[in-house]
Amino acid sequence: MTGSCILVETAKTKFIVDCGMFQGSRFAREENFEPWAFDPKEIDFVLLTHAHVDHCGRLPKLSKDGFKGKIYSTPATKDLAEIILLDSAKVMKEEVLRHGGPILYKEGDVFTVMQQFWGLEYSVKQKISGDVTVRLRDAGHILGSAIIEVWVKEGLRTKKIVFSGDLGNPPAPVVRDTEFIDGADFVVIESTYGGRIHEPSEMRSSLLRQAVLESIGKGGVLMIPTFALERTEELLYELNYLSETKQIPKVPIFLDSPMAINALDVYRRYAKLFDEESRKRIESGDDIFKFEGLELSKTSEQSKKINHVPAPKVILAGSGMSNGGRILYHLKLYLPGAKNHMLIISYQSEGSLGRQLRDGAKKVMIDGQPVGVKAKVTAIGSYSSHADQPKLLHWLKAVASPEPRTVFINHGEPKSNLMLEDGIRQKLNLNTVIAEKNKVYEI
Ligand SMILES: [Zn+2]
User: Fold this and answer.
1) Among 24, 206, 298, 377, which has the minimal tally of Cβ within 10 Å of its Cβ?
2) Cα–ligand 1 centroid distance for 166 (angstroms)
């Protein structure tokens, strides 16, 4: 889980798919410093599925350690990756200042690696090296996210490998639905929510409305930890809709995340990639990310002012797993209040503060201080930008003629891997392998 990085070696080419950062517990973070299982100088190119830090977060280190090739992604992924990587460099710098220790990379390394990006549009088949051809398809996970189809030529034969990247959870506002892929010889599929069934997506709006109304009714503070690139855009879209249709009363809603505010600009730039409904609303003159009551807090001065605004209020801040960022400050302040509410909408990896809270912790440590939890903590799974097991199986089932000879399961916690494997074997009768770290598979 997290730290996604797959090396593919053909007769003539060596490339990697994604180069993510390990996240969550301290142990996971230390894994980022482990030596590469390959020589970065020998890698011809990188294929990047999307801009989440667990997929792109070690790219600057890869480049710093000698990788000179191109990084292929959609142009939207490139623009979002720049924001994500700069933020990641900044967060690490602050951590090193506070706790000491080595730094993975600096801002300058991010600027260097950004020069290596090369944009590929969706649906265009492109030869990348002597024996490798690729095509990106919309994964519907976040803006710019891609499923990657790879054709490897071996003499007269061609083998097709499909890398799912992270698959979306359609129908979702803003992003388009996940594309289906025709046949593949091998599939590498993510299993983040491979063991779960989300509540129906129609429930997202009503659960959100319920949480907003409840905390507002009590005069409390609603805190929603968000990843700038997870559901912030969708959340604003929903809040905008609920507010404009007068389903929720007017309360101040703070987006307290410079990174999310920057990401919104990128979203606006690539509105052509939105789903039909969002495009229609934009054409009719609605700014889908702007409404009365919404305040963007970019500077830390603006952020501090949020506390002076009396409740009820809604605060959206990063990070999504509550293991860093401005949300920590708000949690420290508002978790002890019984009227307040923390609403979790993203994946929470093992060991993260968000996971402890989701699992019902009554006391947590924030910045070395014990904080009692009296606030209500709830989670909405349908907000997830990841497909659940039925959707993963539905997508995999469509990969037919040829149907995959082997499905490699990766990027999930051990339990999710096993449950997805079970589902694939029982419902689709396909051959499966749960990928292990640093293990080599010949295909
Ligand atoms: Zn992702």
Assistant:
1) 206
2) 5
User: pTM of the full predicted structure?
Assistant: 0.90
3-state class (DSSP) for residue 118: strand
Distance, in Å, from the CA atom of 313 to the CA atom of 330, rounded to the nearest integer, reads: 12
Separation of 34 CA from ligand 1 center, angstroms? 22
Ligand 1 center to residue 141 CA distance, Å?
A: 7
Residues 6 or more apart in contact with residue 200 via CB below 8 angstroms: 382
Q: How does pLDDT run across 162-189, given as a tens digit for each residue?
A: 999 999 998 888 899 999 999 999 999 9
Tokens representing residue 350 in the block = 């093992």
Tell me the CA–centroid distance for residue 309 and ligand 1, in Å. Answer: 34
Q: Which are the contacts of 112, defined by CB distance < 8 A and separation ≥ 6?
A: 60, 63, 64
**How much distance in Å is there from the Cα of 78 to the middle of ligand 1?**
14
Query: What distances in angstroms separate CA 295 from CA 2, 79, 292, 312, 382, one per listed residue?
Result: 32, 24, 9, 14, 26
DSSP 42-77: G--EEE-----HHHHTTHHHHHHTT--SEEEE-HHH
Instruction: Give 30's contacts (C-beta < 8 A, 6+ positions apart).
Output: none
